[in-house]
Automatic annotation (TrEMBL):
<feature type="signal peptide">
    <location>
        <begin position="1"/>
        <end position="22"/>
    </location>
</feature>
<protein>
    <recommendedName>
        <fullName>glucan endo-1,3-beta-D-glucosidase</fullName>
        <ecNumber>3.2.1.39</ecNumber>
    </recommendedName>
</protein>
<comment type="similarity">
    <text>Belongs to the glycosyl hydrolase 17 family.</text>
</comment>
<dbReference type="GO" id="GO:0098552">
    <property type="term" value="C:side of membrane"/>
</dbReference>
<dbReference type="Pfam" id="PF07983">
    <property type="entry name" value="X8"/>
</dbReference>
<dbReference type="InterPro" id="IPR017853">
    <property type="entry name" value="GH"/>
</dbReference>
<dbReference type="GO" id="GO:0006952">
    <property type="term" value="P:defense response"/>
</dbReference>
<dbReference type="GO" id="GO:0042973">
    <property type="term" value="F:glucan endo-1,3-beta-D-glucosidase activity"/>
</dbReference>
<keyword id="KW-1003">Cell membrane</keyword>
<keyword id="KW-0449">Lipoprotein</keyword>
<keyword id="KW-1015">Disulfide bond</keyword>
<feature type="domain" description="X8">
    <location>
        <begin position="366"/>
        <end position="449"/>
    </location>
</feature>
<keyword id="KW-0611">Plant defense</keyword>
<keyword id="KW-0732">Signal</keyword>
<keyword id="KW-0336">GPI-anchor</keyword>
<keyword id="KW-0326">Glycosidase</keyword>
<keyword id="KW-0325">Glycoprotein</keyword>
């Protein structure tokens, strides 16, 4: 049976070589309270000519929706599974379950992401000893399964795995971080041995966010009055400088021609004073045309760069530890509506603008808002905090789209986000008498009061309404 599946998979692979290198891909994350159904997302990808997608797992409903679409897929092994993948039998089982199976079912798998930014400095070395053995086992298991020539394992890494010394902060001085240099050396040579690629996530926005003295224009592509000069090369944007720092690090490690994939690059549209639609549009209007021109970078000129934009859709259940902007990276809203005009082809003038998701079902036109007749205002702060703990209130933060609301507006926004997350359960708009349901849209020019999509909840937001109802029923049963 395995032999039969193997030859069928080979025939499927032959159909999928039409996806060209350099075509723009997207990251499809699913950390949403009420995510769009995968079939709707796949159709949206097809309608927008998106031929490559990068996932953060290999969830069955997502993979089945991608089957037969011819969309090239990068599936992923989460960081918390890296230690398990250090056992070769476990790696073989994972490959059989998540590659052989889905290739047989018609999913066009091209890459496996082994972990996600596992060497991030914030992880304090948690995955340093497990990542490379997991990478080896997964690629070897892929090879053993017969897919080694077409499916490659890679490790999406944060750009903090390399740097230039403070004494010479230029791209040509790029080297891998001292604490992981030995592992990185082994890893890049393993990539070369298997004809695989180095995957890196580059975020100009984060450079701006992390350093208040960072030159603002340097995050974009129109040029700057203070470029970095390196051996006669002028670097006018941080994207090129960051990329070429990696190129120099690879050269120093003895693999100067190793292919590079940009696993994530993008700009958030809310949640920070510099995270807004205007700046996101400016960033993409600079990035996409240069990719279309195959401009490359000073150290790798005139080449296609394999790029995955981050991200496809907003994810309102993501952790906001890095910042409130984390839930607003999508080029589409939570419901599959484009946020701004955008042509992924990078052609100028723009002609093939983003197309919205089709057949999206919404909850009824109802909102939960602050009740102006309420008199227990001493409970307002606690109830707002509760609502925001179990929903997404990041748009209320400083510099964000709903930052201009008054106190009652803040309460209404928070109450409504919780109400929508709970599927408009009437019990979820109580807030000790402070909330009320209305059919009047409370949105302003800048602040959108959402109506959630009608889909099953993906992440538990709170059990309080259910608990209250259960307690009430139990009380009645006890009394009678």
């Amino acid at each position: 049976m395995r032999l039969c599946r193997f030859f069928i998979c080979l025939s499927l692979i032959g159909l999928y070589f039409s996806v060209a290198e350099g075509v723009i891909g997207v990251n499809w994350g699913t950390m949403a309270i009420r995510p769009l159904p995968p079939k709707i997302v796949v159709q949206m990808l097809l309608d927008n000519g998106i031929q490559k997608v990068k996932l953060f797992d290999a969830a069955e409903n997502t993979m089945k929706a991608l089957a037969g679409s011819n969309i090239e897929v990068m599936i992923a092994i989460p960081n918390n599974m890296l230690a398990i993948m250090n056992d070769y039998d476990s790696a073989k089982h994972w490959v059989d379950t998540n590659i052989s199976r889905y290739m047989f079912e018609g999913v066009n798998i091209k890459y496996v992401a082994v972990g996600n930014e596992p060497f991030l400095a914030a992880y304090n070395g948690s995955f340093i000893n497990t990542t490379f053995p997991a990478l080896q086992n997964i690629q070897n298991a892929i090879n053993e399964a017969g897919f080694g020539s077409t499916i490659k394992a890679t490790v999406p890494l944060n750009a903090d795995v390399y740097n230039s010394p403070a004494s010479n902060p230029v791209p040509s001085a790029g080297r891998f971080r001292a604490d992981i240099s030995d592992i990185m050396d082994q890893m890049v040579h393993f990539f070369k041995q298997n004809n695989a690629s180095f995957t890196v996530n580059i975020y100009p926005f984060l450079s701006l966010y992390a350093n208040k003295d960072f030159p603002f224009d340097y995050a974009f592509f129109e040029g700057t009055s203070k470029p970095i000069v390196d051996n006669g090369i002028q670097y006018t944007n941080v994207f090129d400088a960051n990329f070429d720092t990696l190129v120099s690090a690879l050269k120093a490690a003895g693999v100067p021609d190793l292919p590079i994939i940009i696993g994530e690059v993008g700009w958030p549209t809310d949640g920070d004073i510099n995270g807004n639609i205007g700046y996101a549009e400016r960033f993409y209007n600079g990035l996409l045309p240069r990719l279309a021109r195959k401009q490359g970078t000073p150290l790798r000129p005139n080449v296609d760069i394999d790029v995955y934009l981050f991200g496809l859709i907003d994810e309102d259940a993501k952790s906001i530890d890095p910042g409130n902007f984390e839930r607003h990276w999508g080029i589409f809203r939570y419901d599959g509506q484009p946020k701004f005009p955008m042509d992924l082809s990078g052609q100028e003038p723009q002609s093939n603008l983003l197309v919205a998701a089709k057949n999206v079902k919404y909850l009824p036109q109802k909102w939960c808002v602050f009740n102006p007749e309420a008199d227990n205002l001493d409970q307002l702060s606690n109830n707002i905090n509760y609502a925001c703990t179990f929903s997404d209130c990041t748009a209320l933060g400083y510099g964000s789209s709903c930052n201009g609301l008054d106190t009652n507006g803040n309460a209404s926004y928070a109450f409504n986000m919780y109400f929508q997350a709970q599927g408009q359960n009437e019990l979820s708009c109580g807030f000790q008498g402070l909330g009320m349901v209305t059919t009047q849209n409370q949105s302003t020019d800048k602040c959108n009061f959402f109506i959630q999509i009608d889909s099953p909840a993906n992440y538990l937001t709170s059990t309080r309404p259910i608990f209250v109802m259960f307690s009430f029923i139990l009380l009645i049963l006890v009394m009678f």
